[in-house]
Design a protein that fits this description.
This protein has twelve helices and five strands. The protein has helices spanning 15-28, 43-53, 62-86, 97-107, 112-122, 138-149, 154-157, 160-163, 166-173, 182-186, 190-204, 218-232, and strands at 4-9, 33-37, 90-94, 130-135, 209-213. A five-stranded parallel sheet has the order 2-3-1-4-5, sandwiched between helices. The chain binds thymidine-5'-phosphate.
């Protein structure tokens, strides 16, 4: 059985860059690795991802959104993750069930107990051996995400999640809201609740989670990730 490692964090936390570096590091050590992501780790998942992230013409309520993430995961676990682990591959997954608790539970305020039951169903009760949580202040992450999508057609570039809270941050930057009020706003904001949610999930399961400072430079973060992977080897 291979090891299952998940990479979690808010927008622009650097996890996607780090997953590639971690996969290279493991391959150099002769370990077979599968890099995958949610939503979108299977052909069905890629269709669901399009619906979920994209601006599209139809509304998506919080409940439908939750079930679409669960459908993506149910297919991903059965079609991709479990077979790879059974072959002895290490599976590095960009977001997994914790993302649903953080985004749909803390972010959208859907019922956490129901999400846990749904996660259990969609994952066949599979739990990661290790979860790396890339933590950084919300504004810094959204700023990075904005840079990443700069130059792409504006409406096509940012996804539905990146657009959340945008107006408030813009009004603060433009001086229409005072910076001093930001800490007060934070717990009301979607992305602020997600960050707090992830940190509380990490506190609940300290043996599984490692919190990494996502604001550090790429090489510093890479070394820390490799250090945690070494402990699993
Ligand atoms: P990403 O590929 O940039 O990580 O985009 C996926 C988006 O979907 C991101 O904003 C987080 C969100 N998401 C959820 O809201 N719930 C989930 O369960 C997952 C896996 C992702």
């Amino acid at each position: 059985m291979g090891k299952f490692v998940t990479f979690e964090g808010g927008e622009g936390s650097g996890k996607t860059t780090q997953i590639k570096l971690a996969a290279d590091w493991l391959r150099e050590r002769g370990i077979p690795v599968l890099e995958t992501a949610e939503p979108g780790g299977t052909p069905l998942g890629r269709k669901i991802r399009e619906i979920l992230l994209n601006r599209g013409s139809c509304a998506i309520g919080a409940e439908a959104e939750l079930l679409l993430f669960a459908a993506d995961r149910a297919q991903h676990v059965r079609e991709t993750i479990l077979p790879a682990l059974a072959e002895g591959q290490w599976v590095l997954c960009d977001r997994f069930a914790d993302a649903t608790l953080a985004y749909q539970g803390f972010g959208r305020r859907l019922d956490a107990a129901f999400i846990r039951t749904l996660n259990d169903f969609s994952t066949c009760s599979l739990k990661p051996d290790l979860t790396l949580l890339f933590d950084l202040p919300v504004e810094a992450g959204l700023e990075r995400a904005k840079k990443r999508t700069a130059g792409i057609k504006p409406k096509a570039a940012e996804d539905r999640f990146e657009r959340e809270d945008k107006e408030l941050y813009k009004s603060i930057r433009d001086g229409r809201q005072t910076q001093l009020l930001l800490p007060y706003f934070k717990s009301f904001l979607f992305h602020g609740r997600i960050r707090e949610g992830y940190l509380s999930l990490a506190a609940e399961e300290p043996e599984r989670f490692r919190i990494i400072n996502g604001a550090a430079d790429i090489e510093t973060v890479r070394r820390e990730v490799c250090h945690h992977l070494t402990a699993l080897l």
